[in-house]
């Protein structure tokens, strides 16, 4: 006798339960269905890859955030909160760290709604003033954004790489970073990125390198910094390591800020750009040939030559 629809559903649920899954029914706004489906797909992909949103590197990052979370360093009666570095922390900052940790644990699903102001106040037991202070910090760092109107609330955002680079560069300038430090750091980071590019380069990456070198053919001494650094930004992207890419790009930006290249005469700049193009082409060809020794040698020579351009 054929099983009924209800029996087939019961059998299916029993099989999935045995596999470690659970049946869950969600009632969500129709406009959010696509977001939930996207989030579920991301989770399934991570499981297929044998990873989890909270993997080892991410767990280390969460641990660091925990260190930044307030701890009581004064008698309980005073309730004065300070972080692991001894700095006083406001309720808004505590809430900011809490929401950031929650987003990281979710796997940073861009576009996911975190809740309305009233919902977030209730979830975190926070005042409106503290929550709004936390939201200002989240928006400042492009971690989350407020959407008004229909479906209003706080949503997970995509951080702005260029804004992060600019913020770190400003701090390093304040800290008095010296040209020799920039040069030494750039040498280490660019060679590390180069090694990863050679290990991970695919057909698309090869094509992008060829196109970049071909696109530089017409450059001369009138080229802007963005045009001359594009090759290096591409290598940083192709290395596939987000942290290395970020730090490499920051150092590239700092090196340009301290360079005397754009204050030189046109004839001198024409000569330098011709050499830059030659080095870029040599590095690109070595990378495409998977010749690590040749690629590293060319890049090291190039970076050593930058010394004469820095203040």
Overview of the structural elements:
- The chain has 2 domains: 29-156, Winged helix-like DNA-binding domain superfamily/Winged helix DNA-binding domain (Arc Repressor Mutant, subunit A); 162-309, GntR ligand-binding domain-like (Four Helix Bundle (Hemerythrin (Met), subunit A), Up-down Bundle), CATH 1.20.120.530.
- It contains 13 helices and 5 strands.
- The protein has helices at 5-18, 33-48, 56-68, 91-106, 117-124, 128-140, 161-174, 179-200, 203-215, 225-238, 242-257, 266-288, 292-306, and strands spanning 71-72, 81-82, 113-115, 144-147, 153-156.
- It has a 3-stranded antiparallel sheet.
- Helix 3 (56-68) packs antiparallel against helix 4 and helix 4 packs across helix 6.
Topology of this structure?
Blueprint (H helix, E strand, L loop, with lengths): L4 H14 L14 H16 L7 H13 L2 E2 L8 E2 L8 H16 L6 E3 L1 H8 L3 H13 L3 E4 L5 E4 L4 H14 L4 H22 L2 H13 L9 H14 L3 H16 L8 H23 L3 H15 L5
Helix pairs in contact: 3-4, 4-6, 7-11, 8-10, 8-11, 8-13, 9-10, 9-12, 10-11, 12-13
């Amino acid at each position: 006798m054929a099983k009924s629809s209800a029996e087939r559903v019961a059998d299916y649920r029993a099989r999935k339960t045995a596999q470690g899954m659970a049946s869950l029914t969600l009632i969500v706004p129709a406009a959010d269905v696509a977001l939930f489906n996207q989030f579920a797909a991301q989770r399934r992909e991570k499981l297929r890859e044998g990873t989890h949103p909270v993997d080892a590197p991410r767990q280390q990052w969460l641990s660091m955030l925990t260190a930044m979370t307030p701890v009581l360093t004064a008698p309980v009666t005073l309730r004065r909160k300070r972080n692991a570095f001894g700095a006083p922390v406001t309720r808004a900052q505590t809430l900011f760290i809490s929401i950031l940790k929650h987003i990281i644990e979710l796997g940073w699903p861009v576009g996911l709604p975190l809740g309305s102001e009233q919902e977030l106040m209730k979830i975190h037991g926070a005042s409106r003033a503290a929550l709004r202070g936390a939201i200002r910090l989240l928006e400042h760092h492009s971690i989350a954004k407020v959407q008004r109107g229909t479906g209003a609330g706080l949503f997970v955002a995509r951080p702005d790489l260029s804004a992060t680079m600019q913020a770190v560069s400003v701090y390093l300038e304040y800290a008095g970073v010296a040209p020799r430090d920039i040069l030494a750091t750039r040498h280490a980071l660019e060679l590390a990125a180069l090694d990863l590019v050679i290990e991970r380069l695919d057909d698309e990456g090869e094509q992008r390198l060829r196109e970049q070198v071909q696109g530089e053919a017409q450059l001369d001494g009138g080229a802007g910094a963005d045009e001359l650094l594009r090759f290096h930004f591409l290598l940083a992207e192709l290395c596939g390591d987000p942290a290395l890419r970020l730090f490499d790009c920051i150092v590239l930006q700092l090196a340009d800020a301290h360079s005397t290249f754009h204050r030189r005469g046109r004839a001198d700049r024409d000569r330098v750009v011709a050499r830059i193009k030659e080095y870029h082409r040599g590095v690109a060809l070595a990378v495409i040939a998977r010749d690590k020794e040749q690629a590293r040698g060319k890049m090291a020579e190039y970076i050593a030559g930058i010394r004469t351009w820095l203040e």
